[in-house]
Amino acid sequence: MDEDDVIRILQHPLSMIETDGDPVGYGQGYPHPRSYGAFPRVLGRYVREMGVLSLEEAVKKMSSMPAARYGQGERGTLAQGMLADLTVFDPHRVRDLATFTDPHQYSVGIVHVIVNGVPVMRDGSLTGQKPGRVLRGPARPTVP
């Protein structure tokens, strides 16, 4: 994609940050690098390095906006009674490492990840827990 187009889209007030990265097993096949680094790439490159978005705006576009759009009202924000999905990262270090020639590279700067209230990464190391599941929402018409 053209970098200027990516920036223009990221800055649009209705755009959300999502990925269609292929959820393959670690070390299997040659997935697109976004499978391992879509969100850290936005945080590292477009937020920290280029200043295209504020950190707060990027996190909103990765969390509460998609949750609301896809009918996942119990997710996407940090509040009492909400489902506990949380990623703790170091905004000064987070960045993607995956490349087309070496796609199976975990990003750096991710400290903790909690999915459905269960830690799946603690202090940068995977715990082996897999509490995630496919989230399905109601079909909605595309915004013109």
Task: Chart the SSEs and their pairings.
Elements: H1 3-11, H2 34-49, H3 55-62, H4 64-69, E1 86-89, E2 110-115, E3 118-122, E4 125-126
Antiparallel strand pairs: 1-2, 2-3, 3-4
Offer a few descriptive terms.
144 residues; alpha+beta; 4 strands; 12% strand
Structure description:
This protein is of the alpha+beta class and 144 residues long. It has one domain (3-17, 33-126). Helix content is 27%, strand content 12%. The chain is built from 4 helices and 4 strands, in the order ααααββββ. It has helices at residues 3-11, 34-49, 55-62, 64-69, and strands spanning 86-89, 110-115, 118-122, 125-126. A 4-stranded antiparallel β-sheet has the order 1-2-3-4, with no helix packed on it. Helix 2 (34-49) runs antiparallel to helix 3 (55-62). It is globular and about 40 Å long.
Quick overview:
By secondary structure, the protein is an alpha+beta fold. The chain is 27% helix and 12% strand.
Oligomeric assembly = single chain
Fraction of helical residues: 25-40%
Q: What portion of residues belong to β-strands?
A: 5-15%
Order of helices and strands: HHHHEEEE
Q: How is the largest sheet built, in terms of strand order?
A: 1-2-3-4
How many angstroms separate the termini?
22 Å
Shape: globular
Uncertain runs are: none
Structural class: alpha+beta
Number of domains: 1
The number of helical runs is 4
Number of DSSP strand runs: 4
For the CA atoms, what is the radius of gyration? 15 Å
Name the average pLDDT: 91
Biggest pleated-sheet summary: 4 strands, antiparallel
